[in-house]
Amino acid sequence: xxxxxxxxxxxxxxxxxxxxxxxxxxxxxxxxxxxxxxxxxxxxxxxxxxxxxxxxxxxxxxxxxxxxxxxxxxxxxxxxxxxxxxxxxxxxxxxxxxxxxxxxxxxxxxxxxxxxxxxxxxxxxxxxxxxxxxxxxxxxxxxxxxxxxxxxxxxxxxxxxxxxxxxxxxxxxxxxxxxxxxxxxxxxxxxxxxxxxxxxxxxxxxxxxxxxxxxxxxx
DNA sequence: TTTTAGATCGTCT
DNA sequence: GACGATCTAAAAT
Length: 219
What we know:
- Helix 2 (about 105-115) packs across helix 3 (about 135-140).
- The protein has a single domain, classed as Methylpurine-DNA glycosylase (MPG) (3-methyladenine DNA Glycosylase, Chain A).
- It contains 6 helices and 8 strands; from the N terminus they run αβββββαααββαβα.
- It has helices spanning about 10-20, 105-115, 135-140, 145-150, 185-190, 210-215, and strands at about 25, 35-45, 75-80, 80-90, 95-105, 160-165, 175, 195-200.
- It has about 220 residues and is an alpha+beta fold.
- A hairpin with a 3-residue loop joins strand 3 (about 75-80) and strand 4 (about 80-90).
- The chain binds a DNA duplex (13 and 13 nucleotides) through strand 3, strand 4 and helix 3.
C-alpha cells in the first residue's frame, strides 16, 4: 500500500527512522517495477547542520528541493559521476539521504542498470544481490534514479517513484550511527548519530560496530 | 583485509 | 578555481 500524506508529516530524524523497513518503488518507462526495502538512511538537518547542503540557510538552485513540501525527492550529482537521492522532511532545508536498500523485486533489471552505469567495460561482472544497492549512489544506479527524471518529484504524487508500507509488520532494532563521508564538515557534526540502519541487515553499506554495542541484542 | 589513487563535472565561491 | 553526502580497481599489509 502506498504511503499517504498523513503518514508522512515528519521531522528529519523522525523520517530517517520511519523510512527504515518501508519499500521504495521505481517504475521504469517500459513499466518494469523495481522494488526494495529501505535499510539505511541519514538525516541532514538543515541550517544548523554543517554537513548539510543547506547549512547556514543556504538556498541554491541545486538544493531547492530541500525546501519543498514533505516527500519531495532531492536528487543531485556528486563527484561528477554519481547521484544521491534524498527525501525532504517537514523542516525547511532538511532531508533524509537514502543510503541502502535491500532489493526485493526486479533484481535482474537492477543488475543490468548497475552494470550500465559503471564506467568500466567489464560487462561480465556479476554483482552479488547485496552489492546492488548498498550505498547511496549504487542504489541510484540500480534503480535508475537520476536528476533529469526524479529530482523534485513528490513521492506521494506520481507513478515513477514512490513509497509503500510493508505487507506485514516488521520487527527490527535501529542502530543510530555516525554519518559517512562528511569529515570535512568538522568533527562535531561528523560524529553526531544521524545515520540509522536496521540492526543485523546484510544490505547495509557500512556497519558501525561501536554503535552496535549500545543496541540491545535480540533474544 | 585495509588503504590509496583516480575518475570527472556540476555547483558554488 | 576548488571541491565533493562516492565508487572501483589496484596496491599494500
